[in-house]
């Protein structure tokens, strides 16, 4: 699971949660299992495997609508 991203100077990494809650910082060009991390954007990562490409969202999601939040708190 990609939990987020981290920038250190000019380098940017995907923060990846693996088995047994192990955390790894994977640089662009690095591997996550069979996939290669090809880009990190504001709230998503692009992974490729051969001709396949997937976009994996990460980070905070939009909040619940006010009506849903009110319903949940009652």
Features:
single chain; about 70 residues; mainly beta; four-stranded antiparallel β-sheet; 1 helix; 7 strands; about 10% helix
Describe it for me?
Helices cover 11% and strands 53% of the residues. It contains 1 helix and 7 strands, in the order βββββββα. The C terminus is likely disordered. The longest helix is centred in the C-terminal third of the chain and has 8 residues.
**Which shape, going by the Cα principal axes?**
globular
Structural class: mainly beta
Give the neighbour order of strands across the main sheet.
4-5-6-7
Beta strand %? over 45%
CA-atom Rg in angstroms? 16 Å
Low-pLDDT stretches: 67-74
Could you report the average pLDDT, rounded to the nearest whole number? 85
List the helices and strands in order: EEEEEEEH
Strands, count: 7
Please bin the fraction of helical residues: 10-25%
Largest sheet: 4 strands, antiparallel
Head-to-tail CA distance between termini? 33 Å
Number of helices: 1
Short description:
Helix content is 11%, strand content 53%. The protein has 74 residues and is mostly beta strands.
SSE diagram, text form:
Blueprint: E1 2-8, E2 11-17, E3 23-27, E4 31-32, E5 35-40, E6 44-49, E7 52-57, H1 66-73
Antiparallel strand pairs: 1-2, 2-3, 4-5, 5-6, 6-7
């Amino acid at each position: 699971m990609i939990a987020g991203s981290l920038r250190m100077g000019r380098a940017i990494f995907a923060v990846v949660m693996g088995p047994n809650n192990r955390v790894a910082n994977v640089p662009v060009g690095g591997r996550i299992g069979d996939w290669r991390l090809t880009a990190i954007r504001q709230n998503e990562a692009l992974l490729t495997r051969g001709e396949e490409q997937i976009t994996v969202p990460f980070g905070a999601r939009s909040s619940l609508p006010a009506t849903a939040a009110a319903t949940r708190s009652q």
